[in-house]
Design brief:
26% of the residues lie in helices and 33% in strands. The chain has 239 residues and is α+β, with helices and mostly antiparallel strands.
Length: 239
C-alpha cells in the first residue's frame, strides 16, 4: 500500500469495507484474521488492529476473543457527522443489498434559499436529483440534491440505480471543504410516502454542502427514518 504512514490504517479499513461490499464477506461471516491481512496487505499488525477496532466501534464488525472478527448482523444505519460516505458501501458493509429508486433527475433553477446556498443569483441554472436509497426491502434515505452544472456537466446522464450521486461527485471532482447540519424533524406527507412512514413520523435530516474548485459544488438534504438511523463519530487520536 503506497500511502502516507498516518493513512495506512484507513486504507486497510477501506479494503475490508470493499471486501464486504463485493460480497466476499457477508453478515455473520468471519473475515480474514489479523495475520492474514498483514500478509495480504503488507502492513504492520498494529495498523490492521487499528482499522478493525475502528470498524468494530462503528458497529460494522463484531470481534470475539480467540475467534476473530465477524461482519455484524443488523446494526442501525449510521452516518459520521464529519465524514462523507457512500451509502451503498455502508449498506453492503452491513451485509445487505443496496438499491436505488430515482424519483427525479432534471434541470432546475435556484430559488432564494438555493441561491444563498450556492452563492449565485436567483434563477441560476442547477441540476436536481431525488433518490430513495433502500437497504433490502426498507427505504433508509431520501436524498434530495442540487449540483452545479459547471462542475458536474454530465450529472443528468448518470444512472443512479447503478451508483450513488455521492460516489459520482467524489469521483468527478475532489471535495475541498464541506459542512453538515443535522435536524430532527417531522416527515411531511410527501416525504412520509416516499420513505414508507406514517405522516409526521420523526426523521433525521442532514443538510450538507460541499465545495470543489473554490465554489459550492453540491447541496443536499439527506432524510432518514428517525427510528433506524444514528450519528456516530470520533475526533482526536484515540489509541
Amino acid at each position: 500500500m503506497s500511502t502516507a504512514p498516518r493513512a495506512v490504517w484507513q486504507q486497510v479499513k477501506r479494503h475490508v469495507l470493499g471486501e464486504i461490499r463485493t460480497g466476499r464477506w457477508r453478515a455473520g461471516d468471519r473475515i480474514a484474521s489479523e495475520h492474514e491481512l498483514v500478509r495480504e496487505l503488507g502492513v504492520a499488525r498494529m495498523t490492521v488492529r487499528r482499522a478493525l477496532d475502528d470498524l468494530t466501534r462503528e458497529g460494522l464488525l463484531v470481534r470475539r476473543a480467540g475467534v476473530g472478527a465477524f461482519v455484524a448482523g443488523e446494526p442501525l444505519a449510521e452516518s459520521h457527522p464529519l465524514e462523507i460516505r457512500d451509502i451503498a458501501a455502508e449498506v453492503a458493509a452491513r451485509g445487505h443489498v443496496w438499491r436505488a429508486e430515482v424519483v427525479a433527475l432534471e434541470p432546475a433553477t435556484a430559488d432564494a434559499d438555493l441561491a444563498r446556498w450556492f452563492a449565485v443569483d436567483p434563477g441560476a441554472a442547477l441540476f436536481r436529483s431525488e433518490v430513495i436509497h433502500w437497504e433490502g426491502e426498507t427505504p433508509i434515505q431520501l436524498e434530495r440534491r442540487w449540483v452545479s452544472p459547471e462542475i458536474f456537466p454530465d450529472y443528468l446522464t448518470q444512472d443512479f440505480t447503478l451508483g450513488t450521486p455521492a460516489a459520482h461527485l467524489l469521483a468527478a471532482a475532489p471535495i475541498e471543504a464541506g459542512e453538515q447540519i443535522v435536524r430532527a424533524e417531522a416527515a411531511d406527507v410527501r416525504t412520509a410516502g416516499l420513505l414508507r412512514l406514517a405522516e409526521s413520523a420523526p426523521v433525521l435530516t442532514v443538510a450538507r454542502r460541499t465545495w470543489s474548485r473554490g465554489r459550492v459544488a453540491s447541496a443536499a438534504r439527506l432524510i432518514h427514518p428517525g427510528h433506524a438511523f444514528q450519528l456516530a463519530g470520533r475526533f482526536g487520536d484515540i489509541p
